[in-house]
Structures are given as structure tokens and as C-alpha cells.
Design goal:
Chain B: Pathway: Glycolipid biosynthesis; glycosylphosphatidylinositol-anchor biosynthesis. The complex is a heterodimer of chains A (about 525) and B (about 350). Chain A is about 25% helix and about 35% strand. With about 525 residues, chain A is α+β, with helices and mostly antiparallel strands. Chain B has one domain. In chain B, α5 runs antiparallel to α6 and α12 runs antiparallel to α15. Classes of the chains: A alpha+beta (about 525), B mainly alpha (about 350).
């Protein structure tokens, strides 16, 4: 503790201030579903000129990422499961599609440099978060808003967005996220216990980092969040949730260096009961610390804009992707972003919006066409929907036959088209959020993986068939040879015909040729014995 | 998945915007005029061979019917396939070739090659129209190159001074480019499955050797077939259709239509029935195999590949038979006094 104070004093001398806040929000969604949100916020104010290498609570690796790649804002999300928009309301922000998602805003000299920098950044993220997203294609630059926390417009910055639907999130990612926190072993982070958090209906975790500089004074921020929707472990008995039930752990320590650490419980009417555990002595006592979590139904359900994707078409060559968007009961401005990976080719002329009620509203669209090999296409649309209006974005596509090495090891499983991101901004208020539709799995046409050599041989033979005779006829002279006696050849042919005829006969009569052969052998042996 | 230069984009954008109802009539017009030109060319050939008027009329009718009532041409016109225009170019080149207008022919070959470089081998046919003078042939080649360059310049201007179309249109099938056959979709050619299956580090080697083989082939063929321009044109045209990077079934329709012009060789063809039967069978099988692979998933890619490779081997055998038939006929002409009609002969290469 004394060392800490010394450190703080040293830091203050350099104009450095750092804070760490932690918070858990527990909200019952229905009688047996509970939503848990962890939010860990860390910030760091420092002077860029007199910057010391001292870090109190802010993770050094994040500061290095921010500086090295001159990031202004970066959002990484990982999720599995599907957020039930009908029952659970607005998803945790920034909203996460199934799989991994990266959205970055950063400085770069030009577009090419930005792409290159993004590749390195993705690799660095792999290291920080223990993910395997290096084959994510993050070279689409969105024009419209994708996620609600990236709403501000700035022309100078480069934006890159990518989604990898097949990525699974697991315990390692959670461990790495915990490593970024100031309090790893005590405080609320002890409740980040994987056995319960992953045994849930929905799990998403995110990392948001940003850095803002005003002249030489900079502020770096980090938010680590984990959101989980879990089932009531004791479904039959309608007793209250307990922390031990929810997290499989008990809270036994406090994070001393946190500025605040609190547990919020949202009640039936939306009222919030806050418990500040920072100065609570009950935690270190004998009796396990508990908060009161009611088992209720949410009485007032928020109406949300809904989005989901579906796939049409029955063959392996063509298909249709439909993104449905249904507005809630007030007008809203909607931005739809859909990433189309390279293995699906769009039929641009047939992409259309279909709306009910009073027809298609005015739509602003942006196309980021894929250039070159494996770059994805980004489709973005901005439209204003009336209350209760449903619109469908119909995207017909051709599935591509890829080269052998472009297929994943389980090619017959199909490949994902990432979910569409829908950003909603209410026209009357500043309320804004983003949601994601479902990712779809497309079955691509696959070649036969077992016989590349056969194919190479066949085609090379066809080419040899062209080359051989051309070479022969152009280098040699065709000359007639008058035929001699044909008898030898004729007898040979007759014998061959006889053998074929006999074989056919044997086949038709179901005579085993081996038996005949053995019979002949026996006959020959008998002949030998006679001698 | 066949890339075309910006000119096509502009022309078809204009067509689609201004006269969308006239699309099918335009295609039908081109198709019928192709058949008409082919029949005119056939009649001209027959006239120059001093056949009777009735025979000339008949051959014209035959060629017209074979092209115009070929079910594949009809269907291709119905689906507005671009091969209709290719066949139109092909027929125009053939007509100009037989009517002895080599310079216009060279210009046409050059301009067609600006869309896809493969038909440029047809320029070798003009050897027969340069009266043995190397300079004249070279001037035809230059003329072709100039018209190619003119179209290239036009494309360049239409593309707003940007040359980014060069790579997908020309280089994607040419030497030493990393994108060769990069996105190859199933078609009836022989390349597609090969380049799906080939290992990455052999890709450039095989592309280069195939392209070199294709552009080398006209040299020995031109040296070989010195006395028959029609046969030479047919062989070069058939090879161009077989080795086209993204061919369709309609690519060989015009060659099939002018096959009756090889009447003198008819009795020497060895595998006529075999080749005809194979082509018909494989064309019938292709949609079935495709359905089995893509729609019902009861077969795999090898089924469709099998049908296409056999189809191509049949076409290649037709080329080889044509080369044999030419040598055979030379023997007939050479030994016509010593050979009796029913002498049976074996052949040997010396």
C-alpha cells in the first residue's frame, strides 16, 4: 500500500491520473432468465510530452496498441448465442454479432497504409485477446454508422470494419480480458468465472479502447465488458437468485484501488438498487455477501427495432439473402450494413428493398466493392422507417467455386455470411443503438477433394492429345505401306473374339472363371501324372 | 466470369437503358446474319471450286440450316449469350477470308482480339492470302495489331484514362501474372477443374505452359497444311474454340456449320460416328450432371467434369482427324496414278 501511494505521488508529478471503475448490472429478464452485465472502465490522463512509462491501473499493452497504431477508437466484440430481441430488448452496446467483430478508427497516411496497418493490428489483437481472427478481412471502410459508439463523424480518420462469423469465443478470451483489468484477483472480477458465464443462453464480451488528445494532454480509455443471459439454476423453486447461483462463486474481496465498484440490481419496474461494495465491511466477514435479486417478469417491455436475416434458394449455385428490418412504434433513422464475403458474388442489378405500408422510403446507399482476390463487399443503406414499418433487403447472389486451398478443412459444412449490422437513431431523441441480425450459413459448391492428381492427369492428357499428333504430323511424313498377307492378323483376331465370347458366356451363365482356370490346371496336372 | 473491356460495358449500358425491348431482336438479327454470312461464304467457296449452280445453292442452304437450326445456337440466342456476337465476328472473318479481302479481315481479327486475345491466332490464316510474300503477311499482322491498339486506346479513354481493366481482361489469361484463372467457375472448357484442383505452387507453371502451347500451335499447323486454306481456317478456329478460357457450347457452332465445306475429305475421316456420338451424348449429359452436382447433390463435381473433359477430348480428336485427313488426301493426290480405288493401305511415319 505504501508503494502504491509513492507511485501515485510520482505519477501526479508527471501530470498522470488513472482511474478504474467496476460495475455489475443484474437484470431479471423473465422468471427464469437473468441478464448480467460486467463493465470495467479504465482511463488514463497523461501529458504526451512528459509521458512517463509508469502505469498504475491502466494496462500498458493497451497504451502501446493505441500509440503504435495511432488508434482513435477500436471496438472488438466476441459473442455466441443469439440475442432475443423480442424478449430481452435492446442488446448490450456495442452490440455483438455471433463470432468476432472488429471496428477500428485510426490515423494513417493513405488507404494502402491503413490496410497494412489494420492487418498488423489484427495480429496484435490476436496476441492480446488470444483470438484467431487473422483471416478476418477488415479492409472494408464503412461510410455510414455501424456501431452506436462509433457515431461521430471525422473525415481524416480511416475506418475499417470486419466480421468473422465462424469464430468461437471461449475461456481463453475471458482469461485474457481479465488480465487487462487493474484488479485481477479481487473485487468484482473474481465473479468472471467461466463455468457459469459460458453455460448460458447468450454470451458476449467486448473491448473498447480509445484515445483522445487535446494538444499535449491525452486521455486514453478502455472498457472491458462481458454480458451474459443465463437461466435460473433453480427453475422450479421460485426463490430469489443468489450470487453463488449466478456466478458459482462468492464475492469475498474488494478492489482497493478502484474508484468505484458497485452492483446494480434492476427491479420489476426498472428501478435500480445500487450497492457500493467498495467500503462494505460485510464482504470480508464469515457470512457470504449477498444482494437481493428478485425473480420477476419485466412489466414494461421496451419496443425495439428488430432485424433478422434469412436465406433463400435451394441449389449450390444461386441463393438469396434477405435482411428483414421491422421498426418499433416510432419513426427512426436506420443504417444497415451488410458485409458480403468474397466467395459470394452479388448480382448488383437485382439488389432491392421491399417495404410494406407506404412503399419504399428514400434510401441512401453506399457500395464498397471488393477489389481483387479476397476482399469482401460492404453494402450500406440509410433509410427512414415509419412506425411499425417492415422492410426487406433482398440480395441475390451466386456462390463461387473456389480453389482447392481456399476451402476450410470442413468444406461441406458451408461458409458464413456475416450478420447485418443495423444502427438505429430515433429521430425525436438522441437515443441510438445498434443491433445485429443473424449470420447465415451458405453451402458452396465443392470440388472433389480426394482426387487432384486424377484431374491433373486427365487434363494434361487432353493437352498431350493435342500436342502429340501436331508434333508427329509436322515433323514426319505420312506414307502408305501396301498391306501384306492378312492371315496372321485375322487368326489372332478370331482367337481374341473367341475368348471374349467365352468370357461373356461364362459371365451370363454365372460360371466362376477361377474355377475354370483351376479345372484347366487340374487337367494339366493329370496330364503330367499320366506320363 | 469472362471479363470484357470497358467498351462492352458502355455499349450494353446504353442498350439496356435506351432500348431494353430491342435486346432480343438485336440478338436474333445477329444470329440470323451470322448464318447468312456463313452460307454466303460457303457459296463463294463452292463457286470458286467451279461447282454447278445447284450444288452452290444447296451448300448455302445446308450451311445456313446447320447454323440457324442448331438447337444450341437457338438457345444461346434466347438467353442473350455474348457468344452470338463472337460467332458473328467469326462468320464475318470467314466471309472476308474466302472472298479475298485480307486487310479488312486483319482489322476485324485485331479488333475482336481486343476483347479477348485468344482469336488472334486466326491471323495465321492470312498466310494463304499473302501470295507467299513474308512482307505482306507481316503487314497484315501489323494491321491486326494496329486495330487492336486502336480498340485498346478507345477502351483506355472510355475508362477515364485508367488502365485497371488490362489485368482482368488480358493478363488474367496471360503470362506471369498472379491472378491467372483466379476465379474460375464451372464451364464446358478444359481449364476450370484443373485450375481448381492444381496446387498453388504449380499454378503459374501450368498457366504459362498452356498459354505457350496455345499460341505456339498455329506455327506447325500452318507449316503442315499448306494447300487448303479452308481446312486450315477450320482447324485454327476449332482450336481457338477449344482453348478459349471461358468457352460455351455455342463457341463451336460456326465451325460445325462450315464442316460440310470439307467434303473432299469426307471419306477419309476415321472417327466420324464416334466423335459425333460423343459430342451429342456429352451435351445431353452436361445438364444432367450439373443438376446432380448443384441441385440435387446426388453427385459431385467429378460428374460434370467428366462430361466436359470427354466433350473436349472429342473436339480435340476432331482436330486430329482433320490433320490426318489432310495428310491422307495428299497421299491420294500424290499416288493417284499408281493406286487403285480399292487398294487397302497401311500408313507409317517416316
Amino acid at each position: 500500500m505504501r508503494e502504491l501511494i509513492v507511485l501515485v505521488l510520482v505519477a501526479l508529478a508527471h501530470g498522470l491520473t488513472e482511474h478504474f471503475d467496476e460495475k455489475i448490472t443484474l437484470a431479471p429478464l423473465s422468471t427464469n432468465e437473468l441478464r448480467v452485465d460486467f463493465r470495467f472502465n479504465s482511463d488514463r490522463n497523461f501529458n504526451i510530452e512528459t509521458e512517463s512509462r509508469d502505469f498504475l491501473t491502466f494496462p500498458r499493452i493497451i497504451q502501446e496498441l493505441l500509440t503504435r497504431y495511432s488508434i482513435r477508437k477500436l471496438t472488438v466484440t466476441m459473442a455466441h448465442g443469439r440475442w432475443n430481441l423480442d424478449e430481452w430488448g435492446v442488446p448490450p452496446q456495442p452490440s455483438a454479432p455471433a463470432g468476432a467483430q472488429v471496428l477500428a478508427e485510426f490515423d494513417a497516411e493513405n488507404g494502402e497504409k491503413a490496410d497494412e496497418r489494420m492487418k498488423f493490428l489484427v495480429e496484435a489483437l490476436n496476441g492480446v485477446l488470444c483470438t484467431s481472427i487473422s483471416h478476418i478481412n477488415v479492409i472494408t471502410s464503412p461510410e455510414l454508422v455501424v456501431l452506436a459508439n462509433h457515431g461521430e463523424k471525422s473525415k481524416k480518420l480511416f475506418k475499417r470494419y470486419g466480421v468473422l462469423s465462424g469464430e468461437t469465443t471461449c475461456t481463453e478470451n475471458l482469461t485474457r480480458l481479465r488480465k487487462l483489468l487493474a484488479c485481477k484477483e479481487n473485487g468484482l472480477s473474481t465473479l468472471l468465472h467461466p463455468s457459469k458465464l459460458y453455460n448460458s443462453l447468450y454470451h458476449s464480451s467486448h473491448l473498447v479502447i480509445e484515445q483522445k488528445c487535446l494538444k499535449s494532454q491525452c486521455e486514453a480509455r478502455m472498457e472491458v465488458g462481458v454480458s451474459v443471459v443465463m437461466r435460473n439454476p433453480s427453475q422450479k423453486s421460485q426463490r430469489h437468485w443468489s450470487l453463488a447461483d449466478v456466478f458459482d462463486r462468492k464475492l469475498g474481496s474488494q478492489c482497493k484501488i478502484a474508484r468505484s465498484s458497485q452492483i446494480d440490481v434492476i427491479g420489476r419496474q426498472g428501478e435500480i438498487t445500487s450497492t457500493d461494495i467498495k467500503n462494505l465491511t460485510a464482504i470480508s466477514g464469515e457470512e457470504p455477501f449477498e444482494v437481493y435479486i428478485p425473480v420477476t417478469e419485466i412489466s414494461k417491455k421496451e419496443s425495439v427495432v428488430k432485424a433478422w436475416s434469412s436465406q433463400g434458394g435451394f441449389e449450390q449455385k444461386h441463393g438469396v439473402l434477405t435482411v428483414h428490418v421491422t421498426n418499433d412504434n416510432s419513426d427512426s433513422e436506420i443504417h444497415v450494413s451488410q458485409i458480403i464475403p468474397y466467395y459470394v458474388h452479388l448480382r448488383y442489378s437485382r439488389i432491392k428493398w421491399e417495404c410494406d405500408m407506404d412503399g419504399v422510403p428514400t434510401i441512401v446507399k453506399y457500395l464498397r466493392n471488393s477489389e481483387g482476390g479476397e476482399a469482401p463487399t460492404l453494402l450500406q443503406y440509410r433509410l427512414n422507417l415509419a412506425a411499425g414499418q417492415t422492410c426487406e433487403l433482398v440480395i441475390p447472389f451466386d456462390k463461387q467455386l473456389l480453389r482447392l486451398e481456399q476451402y476450410p478443412p470442413d468444406a461441406n459444412h458451408g461458409m458464413h455470411i456475416p450478420s447485418a449490422s443495423v444502427f438505429v437513431r430515433k429521430s425525436d431523441s438522441s437515443h441510438a443503438y445498434s443491433i445485429h441480425s443473424s449470420a447465415i450459413l451458405v453451402l458452396l459448391p465443392v470440388p472433389d477433394f480426394s482426387m487432384p492428381f486424377n484431374v491433373i492427369c486427365f487434363v494434361a492428357t487432353a493437352f498431350a492429345l493435342v500436342f502429340g499428333p501436331i508434333q508427329l504430323y509436322s515433323t514426319m511424313w505420312l506414307a502408305p505401306v501396301v498391306k501384306k498377307s492378312q492371315w496372321g492378323r485375322k487368326i489372332h483376331r478370331i482367337i481374341l473374339l473367341a475368348i471374349i465370347a467365352f468370357c461373356l458366356y461364362a459371365h451370363m451363365m454365372d460360371i466362376n472363371l477361377n474355377e475354370i482356370r483351376r479345372g484347366i490346371e487340374n487337367q494339366l496336372e493329370k496330364l503330367n501324372e499320366l506320363k | 466470369m469472362h471479363f470484357l473491356p470497358p467498351l462492352t460495358l458502355h455499349v450494353f449500358r446504353f442498350l439496356l437503358k435506351s432500348l431494353p425491348t430491342l435486346l432480343l431482336p438485336i440478338w436474333i438479327l445477329f444470329d440470323v446474319s451470322t448464318a447468312y454470312m456463313a452460307s454466303q461464304a460457303a457459296q463463294f467457296v463452292w463457286k470458286s471450286m467451279k461447282k454447278s449452280d445447284e450444288e452452290t445453292k444447296n451448300i448455302g442452304k445446308l450451311v445456313f440450316n446447320i447454323y440457324a437450326f442448331n438447337p444450341i445456337t437457338i438457345v444461346s440466342t434466347g438467353i442473350l449469350s455474348l457468344t452470338v456476337f463472337q460467332n458473328f465476328c467469326f462468320a464475318a472473318i470467314f466471309l472476308l477470308f474466302v472472298t479475298d479481302r485480307p486487310s479488312i479481315c486483319a482489322i476485324l481479327i485485331g479488333s475482336w482480339s481486343s476483347f479477348t486475345i485468344y482469336p488472334f491466332t486466326l491471323i495465321f490464316c492470312l498466310v494463304f492470302r499473302s501470295n507467299g510474300s513474308k512482307l505482306k503477311f507481316l503487314s497484315f499482322v501489323t494491321l491486326g495489331l494496329i486495330s487492336w491498339a486502336a480498340f485498346f486506346g478507345l477502351n483506355f479513354l472510355l475508362n477515364g484514362g485508367n488502365s485497371n481493366f488490362v489485368e482482368p481482361v488480358y493478363l488474367s489469361i496471360l503470362f506471369f501474372c498472379s491472378l491467372k484463372f483466379s476465379s474460375i467457375q464451372p464451364n464446358v472448357g478444359i481449364y476450370w477443374y484443373f485450375f481448381v484442383q492444381i496446387f498453388e505452387h504449380f499454378r503459374s507453371f501450368y498457366t504459362n505452359s498452356f498459354v505457350i502451347l496455345y499460341f505456339f500451335m498455329p506455327f506447325p499447323i500452318t507449316c503442315m497444311i499448306r494447300k487448303d486454306p479452308i481446312l486450315h481456317f477450320t482447324i485454327i478456329g476449332l482450336l481457338a474454340s477449344i482453348f478459349f478460357p471461358y468457352p460455351t457450347l455455342n463457341q463451336v457452332s460456326l465451325i460445325f456449320a462450315i464442316l460440310p465445306l470439307l467434303e473432299v475429305y469426307r471419306k477419309h475421316f476415321r472417327y466420324t460416328i464416334l466423335i459425333a456420338g460423343t459430342i451429342v451424348t456429352t451435351i445431353m449429359l452436361m445438364p444432367i450432371m450439373w443438376h446432380m452436382w448443384m441441385v440435387s447433390s446426388s453427385g459431385n463435381a467429378n460428374f460434370f467434369f467428366g462430361a466436359t473433359i470427354v466433350y473436349n477430348v472429342a473436339l480435340i480428336n476432331l482436330v486430329m482427324d482433320m490433320i490426318f485427313v489432310y495428310s491422307r488426301r495428299q497421299i491420294d493426290l500424290e499416288y493417284s496414278d499408281t493406286l487403285k480405288k480399292d487398294t487397302k493401305m497401311d500408313f507409317a511415319f517416316y
